[in-house]
Amino acid sequence: MSSAEEHPRMVRDASGVEEEAAAWLVKRRDSGAWGEHDEVALNRWLDEDWSHRVAYWRLDAAWNSADKLGVLRWRDELRPRVSPLLMKLAAGIAVLALLGAGAGFLLRAPSPKTYQTAVGGRELVSFADGTQIELNTDTVLRTMMTTKERMVWLDRGEAYFQVKHNAAHPFVVMVGGHRVTDLGTKFLIRRDGARLEVALVEGRVRLSQTAPAKRAQTAMLGKGEEAVVAKGRLSVTQKTSAELANELSWRRGFLVFRHTSLARAAAEFNRYNGQKVVIADDLAASLTIDGTFLTDDPGAFTDAAQTVFGLRVTKRGNEIVISR
Amino acid sequence: MAETPDTHLESARRDADMSVPEIQAWFVREVLPLESVLMQFLRRSARDLADAEDLRQEVYVRVCEAAQHGIPQPARPFLFTVARNLLIDRARREQIVSIEAVADLETLNVAIDEPGPERNAIALDELRRLQSALDHLPRRLRSVVVMRKVEGLSRPEIASHLGIAEKTVEKRLTQGVRALARVLYGADAETKS
Q1: What pTM did the predictor assign?
Q2: CB burial class (10 A; 0-12, 13-18, 19+) of residue A227?
Q3: Partner residue facing B170 (CB), from A3, A31, A300
Q4: ipTM of this complex
Q5: What pLDDT, in 10s, does the model give residues A146-205?
Q6: Does B177 sit within 8 Å of A294, measured CB to CB?
Q7: 3-class DSSP state of A117
Q8: Whole-angstrom Cα Rg for chain B
Q9: B5 within some domain
Q10: Coil, strand or helix: which one is B19?
């Protein structure tokens, strides 16, 4: 049973079969147009040869596995982020557990710490009390976590806080002359120079000005509210959950634009990438775009600008210039 | 092989026959998780990756055909026996006996009897593997796969988001599923971690 004649498949390339199988699979699972006659045709193809079946089953299983990626979408609400970083943290916790009593001492000791992400970086930091802070790109954050107080300074950038509330030990974030005091919550803080944004995903915080102390402004923020401090003025608006989700999309590595000007979109990309997008034309800058992009893929954005608006895209050194 | 209808024999065999869905379930559950080990083995005797993938396809075809007459338990030694026989067949046919191939078969005899840790490991951190598999996809494919699988967007939605044709989305999804399977099950496993 081992002669070449009885196994013509030996010369048939697996890559060709796999390509066909992938086309069937995507047509069936992702095209939205799949009828009875398609099903019949697929089954006929599958029955032709076992190589068709195994190739299709293999890809189908991979595609099924990928469906589990959908949970990542809900991990904001349901579960901590599963990432290599989290694995590292888990390993760290395991090591601490092995250290036993010694580890307890380490956790109790006052430990001012600085966390910093590079441009395009992202980091999740977990604390012994269950609090998690996720740093976005180009962010500097200092913490002082003791049994008495929990203080965080956001010196630059953006971070998402999921705080384990403890009335006896308030959680306080100091940022740009303001103090954000947690009253049991999940919130996002972003600092761009003098501009400050605080968005509440859950719970409540108190936002108060610390400097100048004379005309201190205070606001209580509830779920879905976003405070913006710009040029010394504080304003609070109510956001829909979809808007908030878009603001948090960086946690999944995405930028979501809704009627966003090209200028603003370019500025967003530039926070994440060494390669900068420059809009060299006022009219182009004011065009608006809708879309979802990977934070590290400004090329997809400039491609879209080129295709949708017919703008000219040129590379100049470390810049991608968009012009008319 | 001539198909002489022998009703007596046919009915006797039908009792032991496995249905196609049963074979598929077994294949996905027991065989696919062994792909990375299988590919490591095949690649030592293969000319290149494409050749190893051809061999892999043939191994899969043979084990599934055999499974029609009863699910081989346990899967691992059976899979590697089939792989080994396939390599021997090929060496005979091509009248080349690679010294390395023979040496590998010797070491394989020891390896295939051990229950491998791979399956559990894979089941345990499937999500981690998935995420790492995603990270290893080329960027153009990654964005459509993520939009489809993580964000749950439809093909037209992805097309309008990215400003590309629906046909292009379909093409990238097709390439994406192939790349994902390759990273997930094995060929790139060595280069990954």
Answers
A1: 0.47
A2: buried
A3: A31
A4: 0.76
A5: 767 788 999 999 999 999 888 778 899 989 888 898 877 899 999 988 889 999 998 888
A6: no
A7: coil
A8: 20
A9: no
A10: coil
Query: CA-CA distance, A102 to A96, in Å (whole number)?
Result: 8
Pairwise CB contact (< 8 Å): B61 & A82: no
CA–CA distance, B118 with B66 (Å, rounded to integer): 23
Which residues numbered 168-187 in B keep a CB inside 8 Å of some CB on A?
Answer: 170, 173-175, 177-178, 180-181, 184-185
A62 to chain B, closest Cα gap in Å: 5
Identify the domain containing residue B69 by its residue range.
17-116
Mutation target vs A (from B84, B143, B150; most A CBs, 10 A cutoff): B150
Whole-angstrom distance, CA of residue A61 vs CA of residue A64: 5
Tokens describing residue A41: 């045709």
pLDDT, tens digit (0-9, with 9 covering 90-100), for B72-119? 888 898 998 899 888 877 777 765 555 445 445 555 544 444 444 444
Rounded alpha-carbon distances, angstroms, from residue A300 to A260, A320, B163, B176, B180: 16, 12, 9, 17, 21
User: Do B20 and A53 count as a contact with CB atoms less than 8 A apart?
Assistant: yes
Mind listing the domains of chain A with CATH numbers?
Answer: 4-67 (no CATH), 78-244 (2.60.120.1440), 253-323 (3.55.50.30)
- By Cβ distance, the residue of B24, B54, B154 closest to A14 is B54
* pLDDT above 50: residue B193: no
